[in-house]
Prior knowledge:
Two copies of one chain form a homodimer. With 360 residues, chain A is α/β, with parallel strands linked by helices.
Amino acid sequence: xxxxTKSAASSKIDIRGVAARARVSIATxxxxxxxxPTVDPALAKRVWKAVKELNYFPNTQARALVSGRSRLFGxxxxxxxxxxxxxxxxxxxxxxxxxxxxxxxxSTSYDAAKTEQCVRRMLERKVDGVAVMTFGIEELLLNRFxxxxxxxxxxxxxxxxxxxxxxxxxxxxxxxxxxxxxAALGHRxxxxxSGPLRMHSAQARSDAFARAMQQAGLVTRPEWMLExxxxxxxxxxxxxxxxxxxxxxTAIVCSNDVTAxxxxxxxxxxxxxxxxxxxxVGFDDIHLAEYTIPPLTTVRMxxxxxAHAAIGTLLEMLGTAEAAAGTPVPTHLIVxxxxxxxxxxxxxxxxxxxxxxxxx
Amino acid sequence: xxxxTKSAASSKIDIRGVAARARVSIATxxxxxxxxPTVDPALAKRVWKAVKELNYFPNTQARALVSGRSRLFGxxxxxxxxxxxxxxxxxxxxxxxxxxxxxxxxSTSYDAAKTEQCVRRMLERKVDGVAVMTFGIEELLLNRFxxxxxxxxxxxxxxxxxxxxxxxxxxxxxxxxxxxxxAALGHRxxxxxSGPLRMHSAQARSDAFARAMQQAGLVTRPEWMLExxxxxxxxxxxxxxxxxxxxxxTAIVCSNDVTAxxxxxxxxxxxxxxxxxxxxVGFDDIHLAEYTIPPLTTVRMxxxxxAHAAIGTLLEMLGTAEAAAGTPVPTHLIVxxxxxxxxxxxxxxxxxxxxxxxxx
DNA sequence: CTGAAAGCGCTAACAA
DNA sequence: TTGTTAGCGCTTTCAG
Lengths: 360, 360
């Protein structure tokens, strides 16, 4: 077991070791690595040299214990298996790390017990702030964090309390674009497949749809306002239910992309084609949307914008950053290949095969 | 600002507060909440009562500082946007939480600098163990953790050092099933679209393919062994390259599901049909595989099994759990709708339209 | 500008 | 069985 004094056992080196080697006090080491400006450059140089040689890095636990700040941000999402969230998480993590923060991830899976436990874990780890990206009202969460004086950001939730802020999303813009696009193609019978309506953001998207329809002079029929679950299965099931009804719409707007993918699947199963039999519009613009067959027309809400807004707001609440201006996160339509002219009833009845001729 | 003595400011309650209210020493409180069996039940009851009333929970930082254990497991993945990883992460987190551990997530994005930083963060936070699920050899990682005496599990990496173990995956089983399935359908010209070959697991899958082909008495042509990137884009690009060559295989086996989805997309773009023109097999069986159009035939490797094996091994190394026996993670074929009889050259030339008649 | 010393909240000897 | 006490590694007064 050869352990040269220099290299190995990096984990056992502490601030005292560095101080000894640099022939200064531990206080000076502390100041140096924290970039306190009043340190004599000569000493600082000795300290950094020792740090390098010993491969020292500070113990985060001790640091957090004494300073009261953990440099940890909690990120609470509902369900990590919806591809939108990983994209969001990745952005969030990248931006957090840039600012010297770590992410503690929690997923609620729409389950009260899991949510409670998740909040508890965040509180125990003394996160400096929390971003709740569940796209749903979680009064519970708000109260618990409020009690602990922990800065919290939510996505489009109503009131801002002393320790919580809201990031607003301009759902209307993108959804209006979608309806206008559909209307321009000749669609009049448009259905909306929402997420769980108890979730505020699902409700907001649903409302935006209704408003856009009205602006376009189209009527929304109640039986064409379906409630889904924001999942693949939910989209498939809802579409299957709709296919059992008498009168079909010619276009379907979904509250998120995975729902739309579920719809595509149900349609495929029923031997119905997109966009010939049904036009389809998603929401989110996950990376995969470009890869569905055919590629999905969808409303883009950039996960990067969301992550930026969330962390900016958190940093601002901590006094670390300037006010990041509360401009809402924008959305806009991306036209791909799931939208086209509405079918005539005749087409619907005998549709078969692809239109385009074989190429190769 | 009314703050009743009982409820609010839960974050300011410490072990001393609890001790005072329960009229015991802080040591007794510590023992109670750590379930040390030698505490007098009467006192324990008083302590728990105080804990409830004050809504107390221990400061994790302090606990970690003194005990040297953070109850944190690092989980390093390559790229969170490949849907396989979120599914794995979710499983991993669930199981970790069951055992009282938290997850610190890091993604390397195949980038050396990001990887380095990621390891550093884990070391700084003093993780009790690390699972490296990058599906690639990362000597760098191994050494750094080894130096810090941190238990580490890798996926199918060669040698086990004192502090590292390997979880092996039985790639052969599932891939052999896939080849046999294809051969039974009449395929002889089968291509393999691998991941980045510098990644050990991609190489292992590739080798398993070659062996399975040999066992089935089929020849593998070098130009049909393509290297992809385990991404949507990589699958699409590789397929597009292949379509430019003179001789086409009749079936394609992919090293993971997103690659297969990319291939489907390239085929769709080229007006070629699955499975009429090409049979397609994926690997992983992500949830989405059931929702591609048509649904993807794939080799299942359960993320749950992987997560279980990883955490079991980590716990075992920490002495917390019994030896979890090193049985390899199994894989097996799931037949859906992307595999069928091989095309004849004639079919390839004039393929058009769906076979099945319209239903509704 | 630097060093000595006092804790941060908790666990783990050691005494009682 | 319970309480007292000494730190864990670090930041941060407070003197010097």
